[in-house]
Predict the structure.
Amino acid sequence: MKLFKRLLVVFCLLMLCLQAYAAVYIVEPLDEKLFPGQELSFGKISRGETLKVVVKKKSDLGQDWFQILVDPEFLPPSWKAESIETDKTLIALVTLSEDAAVSMQRLKFLAVNDLQPELNESFFATVSVHESLLSASIEDVVKDAVLGQETIFSLVLNNDSIAEHSLKAESSLPGYWFKSQEMVLAPNETRTVALSVQPLTYGEKNFSFKVLSLYNDTGFDFPAKLNTKPTLLGMYQAPITGLPLFSPTMLPYYLINGILSIFS
């Protein structure tokens, strides 16, 4: 009988220990319930990007986590970490330095319950750091165009990272031919972006597009060419946006024609 009571007490203690464990539910970059001692592999990330780790506030015990923290002892030099709270989630942001070493990094996270510190849980996760996980291409770099009419170049971008990435597209063309544009790629996203060029002189025009990362020194250069055919309306509109290509004595008539073409 005494042995049974002792076993019963041990059993109850074990049950209390099990019940005291509060599970951490990760939403991003993985969707997973964590168990004690479990270690995650988040995947690939590149220099300058920000790892976003999102957990649910509610644990399976019905208690709220108050914070999700990153252990600074596990952060490489120049990496930064911060925490954000939303209505239903807690977010840890880990920003890599622009010159982060290409390596496998092990990070430690802590889910904190301020009212019941005994429920605090920690977990580890690894990330594979790369110089760049971007790729870019332009489908057709030589285009036939019509003077004064929009011409589209298709830029294909791919982000093979678990973090989003911001980029900027520029060109060697005048600003009134092509306006630089910025874009944000979501994690593991492939997207086609339209680069709009408006040729304002006719003939052959060699130029280049440049796609630059806003997070690190990654860049792509694409030589391109426009073969632009003239139109009567386009030739009249040209002085509105550029200089004439003939004798200056014709300038007043050329400008008048350009202005009248707007209302034609």
User: Anything to note?
Assistant: The two ends are 106 Å apart (CA to CA).
